[in-house]
Amino acid sequence: MMHKHVRLTGKDFSETNRVAELMKNMDNIDTAYASRVSDEIFKFQPFFLSALLGLGYDLPAQELDEIAKIYFLIWEFFKDNPGVKSVKLTENSFMSRSMKNAGMFKYVDKEKNKRIINEIYATDLQKIKSKALLTGIILRFNTRPVLLVMDSGNKGI
Fold this sequence. Notes:
Helix content: over 70%
């Protein structure tokens, strides 16, 4: 198997600083911020918000808190993109991506070979709109104690 490398562009490097700053902000959010941003998301992407709220029935409070921070991170990163405010996320597209993510996380959770794990992430990163954002999300899943032990199916969602 050929070892894959992620190709990075100037855009990827500039987005890295933005993602790092947004991630730092996510660790300091309060209820006023969560309420304001939830209203904003509901206005433009109601299914995205309903998917997060639906997780509240399935996840323990600490896991939901961590996942909410990831949702807010995604929103903050993309909210100024005009398409985000005009093209609505659908349940079908969300579920399709969630199932693909869950499959990837399940496979990675069982894989012991670090080289293969890195190749899986490299392949996924090449297809993504923001390598910096996905890398930040993966970093959270690999460093936050609550997310480290989270069920792989829930991680994908």
